[in-house]
Write a structure and sequence with these properties.
The protein is built from eleven helices and 28 strands. The chain has about 525 residues and is an alpha+beta fold. It has a seven-stranded mixed sheet with strand order 3-14-15-21-18-17-16, sandwiched between helices. A five-stranded mixed sheet has the order 25-24-26-27-28, with helices on both faces. The mean pLDDT is about 95. It binds glycyl-adenosine-5'-phosphate. Glycyl-adenosine-5'-phosphate binds next to strand 15, strand 18, strand 21 and helix 8.
C-alpha cells in the first residue's frame, strides 16, 4: 500500500493554478470571495466532465443488456431519507477548539499523550475582574516550557474580558494543577487547547417546499439528496415492472449529491456539491459476494481504460467492524493524489438492507417474484459508487507532466503537457493554418475545421507562431494538432504530391506525420474513442 502521507504540495499547487488559468475549474462565486466547497467547471473542464460521464454511461448502460438508466430528482422526500437512515444518522461528530473556535472532526483527531495543565479561572487584580471557568492545555512534547500552557490559558481567559484594553499577559491564573494524559483526543493537536465535547453535525442540506411552507410542517421538509442511490432503491420496482427485467439487473444513475462537509478540502476532492456515478446491481442473495468481486474487477479495468495508472490505484478490503453493519463486503478503490492516497470509489455489497428498509417504511411490496422457482424475496444489492469530480481530479493529476526540453547551453525550456487519453481530452484536434496572412491557408484550414466539427470538439487557432500554438495545445491536452501549410496547397516545389495533405503533430511524442484530408476524419475517429 502506498504511503497515505506521501504528498506533493508543489505539484498540487501547479495543477490548481493550471486549472484556473486554462479554464478547467474555477472556485464558485470567486468574485464574491468564493463559496466554500463549491466549484464551477470552465469550458475545458465541462468537456472533460462530459467525456467521462458519456464514457461511464456508454460502458455501464448502453453497452449492457442488464443495466438501465435513471435520472432521479435531487429534491428528496424526507420519508425516503428517514427509511434509509440518513435523517438523524448522517452526521459527523464535531468539536470546537475553545481557543481558536476551529471546528474539528472528533473521530479524526490523533490520540496524544503529555502533561495537561488545568486551571479554574483567571483574574485581573487592578480592575477587580475575574472569571470562574475550568480550562486545560495539553503539552504533548517532552521538556516543553510549562509557560506555554499558561500563555495559552491566559489567551483563552482574555476572551471573557469586558475591558479589551487589558492585555492577556496581565491576567493571573487561578487553581493550577497538572495531570499526566495518555492517548487522549480532547485537545487540539495544533495548539494544545481543550476542545468542546463532540456534537453530531447534520451533513444534509434541508429545505422547505411549497409557497406556504411552514418551518415546522414535516410534510414541507425536503432534502437535497446526499447520494444518488436512494432514488434508485425507491424506483426499483417501477423500473423493474416497466422494463420486465429479471435478476440480476442494475440501475445506473449519474447526478448531483450534496453534503454539508465540515471541512471541504484538497481542491474539488471533498466538496459540498458533487456528482456521483452509481450503480445498484440487484441479484439473488447467493450471488452477492461473487458479483462484488466481479464489479471490483470491472471498475478497475474502467480506470485503466480512462488512463489512471494501475500502480497508482489501491484496493482496500474494508475489515469487519469498519464496514457498514449491513455490508458483508466493501472494497474502497483509492488513488495516489498529490495530496496522498484517497478514496475514488466504493464497491459495497449492501445485502437486502436498502430495499428491506423501504419496504418496511413505505409498507409497499418490494419483493421480486422468480417465475421459475416461484420464490418471492427481496433482492440483494451490489453497489459500485464512484465520484465523478474525484475521478476528474485524478485524471487531471495523472495527466499533468512537466518535461524539461532545455537544449545544452540554451534557455530553460519546460513543456507543460496534459497527457489525457484522447477519449477524455477536452479538445480532440486543433486546426492551425501556418500563417494567418495567407488567405488560401486560412480558407483551407476553415474547410478542415468544418469537416471535423460535427464529429468532435475541435479548436481553430491562427494566432502566434506555430511552435507556440503547439505548446498552448499541449497545456490543455489536445492529442492532435493539424497544421495547414504550403504543402497542403501544393505550393512547395518538388512536393506537389503532398497537395491536400496536412501535418499531424502528436502531443506526447511531438512526432509529425502527413495525412490526406480525405482520410482525416476516419483517421481521427479511430483514435479519439
Ligand atoms: N451510495 C454510497 C455512497 O454514497 P460514499 O462512499 O459516501 O457512498 C461514494 O460516496 C463516492 O462519492 C465516494 O467514493 C466519492 O468518490 C464520492 N464522494 C463522496 N463524498 C464526496 C464529497 N464530499 N466530495 C466529492 N466526492 C464525494
Amino acid at each position: 500500500m502506498a504511503n497515505k502521507d506521501q504528498t506533493d504540495t508543489d505539484r498540487m499547487e501547479k495543477i490548481v493554478s493550471l486549472c484556473k488559468r486554462k479554464g478547467f475549474i474555477f472556485q464558485s462565486a470567486e468574485i464574491y470571495g468564493g463559496l466554500n466547497g463549491c466549484w464551477d467547471y470552465g469550458s475545458l473542464g465541462a468537456e472533460v466532465k462530459r467525456n467521462l460521464k458519456d464514457l461511464w454511461w456508454r460502458k455501464n448502460v448502453q453497452e449492457r443488456d442488464d443495466i438501465l438508466g435513471l435520472d432521479g430528482s435531487i429534491l428528496t422526500h424526507q420519508a425516503v431519507l428517514t427509511a434509509s437512515g440518513h435523517v438523524g444518522g448522517f452526521s459527523d461528530p464535531m468539536c470546537d477548539c475553545l481557543l481558536t473556535k476551529a471546528r474539528l472532526r472528533a473521530d479524526q483527531i490523533e490520540p496524544q499523550s503529555g502533561i495537561a495543565y488545568h486551571f479554574t479561572g483567571a483574574s485581573h487584580e487592578e480592575s477587580g475582574w475575574s472569571v470562574d471557568r475550568d480550562y486545560s492545555v495539553l503539552l504533548n512534547q517532552p521538556n516543553q516550557d510549562e509557560n506555554k500552557a499558561r500563555k495559552t490559558a491566559r489567551e483563552f481567559y482574555a476572551q471573557f474580558l469586558t475591558d479589551k484594553q487589558i492585555p492577556a499577559k496581565k491576567l493571573t491564573l487561578l487553581g493550577e494543577s497538572t495531570s499526566e494524559e495518555k492517548e487522549v483526543t480532547h485537545y487540539n493537536p495544533e495548539n494544545g487547547s481543550l476542545l468542546t465535547e463532540p456534537r453530531d453535525f447534520e451533513l444534509m442540506f434541508k429545505t422547505q417546499m411549497g409557497a406556504s411552507a411552514d418551518d415546522h410542517d414535516p410534510n414541507a421538509t425536503a432534502y437535497l439528496r446526499p447520494e444518488t442511490a436512494q432514488s434508485i432503491f425507491v424506483q426499483y420496482k417501477n423500473v423493474m415492472d416497466s422494463n420486465r427485467v429479471k435478476l440480476p439487473f442494475g440501475i445506473a444513475q449519474i447526478g448531483k449529491a450534496f453534503r454539508n462537509e465540515i471541512n471541504p478540502r484538497n481542491f474539488t476532492f471533498r466538496s459540498r456539491e458533487f456528482e456521483q456515478m452509481e450503480i445498484e446491481y440487484f441479484c439473488r442473495p447467493e450471488d452477492g459476494l461473487r458479483l462484488t468481486d466481479e464489479w471490483l474487477a470491472k471498475r478497475l479495468s474502467f480506470y485503466d481504460e480512462i488512463g489512471l495508472q494501475k500502480e497508482k490505484l489501491h484496493v482496500l478490503d474494508i475489515p469487519d467492524g469498519e464496514r457498514a453493519h449491513y455490508s458483508q463486503k466493501t472494497y474502497d478503490i483509492e488513488y495516489d493524489f498529490p495530496f496522498g492516497q484517497q478514496e475514488l470509489e466504493g464497491v459495497a455489497y449492501r445485502g437486502d438492507y436498502d430495499l428491506g428498509k423501504h419496504k418496511e417504511h413505505s409498507g409497499k411490496p418490494l419483493e421480486y417474484f422468480d417465475e421459475q422457482t416461484k420464490e418471492r424475496f427481496i433482492p440483494h444489492v451490489v453497489e459500485p459508487s464512484a465520484g465523478c469530480d474525484r475521478t476528474i481530479l485524478a485524471l487531471i493529476c495523472e495527466a499533468f507532466y512537466e518535461e524539461d526540453l532545455t537544449k545544452e547551453g540554451g534557455k530553460q525550456d519546460i513543456r507543460t503537457v496534459m497527457r489525457f487519453k484522447p477519449a477524455i481530452a477536452p479538445i480532440k484536434a486543433a486546426i492551425l493554418p501556418l500563417l494567418k496572412n495567407k488567405p488560401e491557408l486560412v480558407e483551407k484550414a476553415r474547410e478542415v475545421k468544418n469537416l471535423l466539427q460535427p464529429f468532435m470538439n475541435v479548436f481553430y487557432d491562427e494566432t502566434a507562431a506555430i511552435g507556440r500554438r503547439y505548446r498552448r495545445q499541449d497545456e490543455v491536452g489536445t492529442p492532435f494538432c493539424i497544421a495547414i501549410d504550403f504543402e497542403t496547397m501544393g505550393l512547395e516545389e518538388g512536393k506537389e504530391d503532398l497537395k491536400d495533405t496536412v501535418t499531424i503533430r502528436h502531443r506526447d511524442s511531438m512526432k509529425q506525420e502527413r495525412v490526406a484530408i480525405s482520410d482525416l476524419l476516419p483517421w481521427l475517429l479511430e483514435r479519439i474513442h
